[in-house]
Amino acid sequence: MSTSVLDENVVYLAYDRWVCGRLDCAGWHAARTGRTTSGYRLTKVTGADVEAWMREFDEPLSCECGAISLDNPQAIVQ
Ligand SMILES: [Zn+2]
């Protein structure tokens, strides 16, 4: 029925927030189109993102629903 273009196990940057591919986290529009409702194309989190986040906030980078939290930049495979 609905086909998501996002991976549930991946964290994406959706303009100014981190979401995973789950429908209730990324939202229907992003899951279907890979873009936010304002047209921003979601990009996969990178190891550098996680590293920068942890350096700045001293905590794992997690998506909005909390299903995924990343604390190992080396583990991010692009
Ligand atoms: Zn999530």
Explain this structure.
The chain is of the alpha+beta class and 78 residues long. It has one domain. Helix content is 27%, strand content 18%. The protein is built from 3 helices and 5 strands; from the N terminus they run ββααβαββ. The protein has helices spanning 23-26, 28-33, 47-57; strands at 11-14, 17-20, 43-44, 61-62, 69-70. β4 and β5 (69-70) form a beta hairpin. The longest helix has 11 residues, at 47-57. It is elongated. The model has no long low-confidence stretch (mean pLDDT 95).
Write the layout of secondary structure elements.
Blueprint: E1 11-14, E2 17-20, H1 23-26, H2 28-33, E3 43-44, H3 47-57, E4 61-62, E5 69-70
Antiparallel strand pairs: 1-2, 1-3, 4-5
The structure holds zinc ion (ZN).
The largest beta-sheet arranges its strands as: 2-1-3
Rg of Cα set: 12 Å
Structural class comes to: alpha+beta
Could you say how many structural domains there are in total? 1
Output the helix-strand order.
EEHHEHEE
Give the % helix. 25-40%
Report the sheet-strand fraction: 15-25%
Mean pLDDT: 95
Poorly predicted regions are none
Please give the count of helices.
3
Distance N terminus to C terminus? 29 Å
Q: Strand count, sense and closure of the main sheet?
A: 3 strands, antiparallel
Any idea what the shape is? elongated
Q: How many β strands by DSSP?
A: 5
Distinct ligand kinds: zinc ion
